[in-house]
Amino acid sequence: MRILVIEDDQSVADFIIKGLIENNHVVDHQSDGKDGLFLATTESYDVMIIDRMLPNVDGLTIIRTLRASNVNTSILILSALADVEQRVEGLQSGADDYLVKPFAFSELLVRAEILGKRQYAEPHITELAIVDLVLDLITHKVSRAGQDIDLLATEYRLLEYLMRHVGQVVSRTMLFEHVWDYNFDPQTNVIDVHMSRLRKKIDKPFNNTLIHTIRGTGYVIRPPEKDNS
């Protein structure tokens, strides 16, 4: 998933970012409410984690502004404000969940991943499968024809995004937005390099090709066409 964290406490932000990256998520971070609102309205995210008390623009104002602009991305509020009335106010502002500080990262991760699954309207899905290729969303294990495939974190994110969009041509821009952070330089050939490595692991050892390059457009993952001859 691509996650935006808007948190002005750098130690808390570092703690969250480190944990999310270790769990194969792409993270953008802003410590200022105004800058965070700009990213939230100009970039595409699966989940946003927003602190309530922020400089320049507070968290609830950010959320109300997003909802008024029809941005429906799932939002998790982080806050030291723990009273029932304050939690209710946060949820009424348009947030989907509310987590009180201090918190355990394991709980934040579970809540964020549940919200992310809602974005795909597949709250109960635990694996993705195309023909004999299987990606386990819980364990992050990948296998094809019963053989385990060892993927690096970026390769895993690429494959998950392709499999969630099976049959759909995915552009380089879409991959940059959901697999790399917004500071990434789109002029490099890093997508081609990682995609080449991914295809060597996913397709080369097997009879059928699943990942295809659409010249000048992007990539698509799809089942092999049936031979009707």
Largest sheet: 5 strands, parallel
How many DSSP helices?
A: 8
Number of structural domains: 2
CATH first level of the largest domain: which class?
Answer: Alpha Beta
**What is the general shape?**
elongated
Give the name of the CATH architecture of the largest domain.
3-Layer(aba) Sandwich
Order of helices and strands: EHEHEHEHEHEEEEHEHHEE
Q: Quick one: CATH superfamily of the largest domain? A: Response regulator
Strand order of the largest sheet: 2-1-3-4-5
Features:
alpha/beta; Rossmann fold; Arc Repressor Mutant, subunit A; 12 strands
Describe this structure in words.
Helix 2 packs parallel to helix 3 and helix 6 crosses helix 8. The termini are far apart. It is built from eight helices and twelve strands. The protein has 229 residues and is of the alpha/beta class. It folds into two domains: 118 residues, Response regulator (Rossmann fold, 3-Layer(aba) Sandwich), CATH 3.40.50.2300; 95 residues, Winged helix-like DNA-binding domain superfamily/Winged helix DNA-binding domain (Arc Repressor Mutant, subunit A, Orthogonal Bundle), CATH 1.10.10.
What's the topology here?
Layout: E1 2-6, H1 10-22, E2 26-30, H2 33-42, E3 47-51, H3 59-68, E4 74-79, H4 84-92, E5 97-100, H5 105-119, E6 127-130, E7 133-136, E8 142-144, E9 147-149, H6 153-164, E10 170-171, H7 172-179, H8 190-202, E11 211-214, E12 218-221
Parallel strand pairs: 1-2, 1-3, 3-4, 4-5
Antiparallel strand pairs: 6-7, 7-8, 8-9, 10-12, 11-12
Helix pairs in contact: 2-3, 6-8
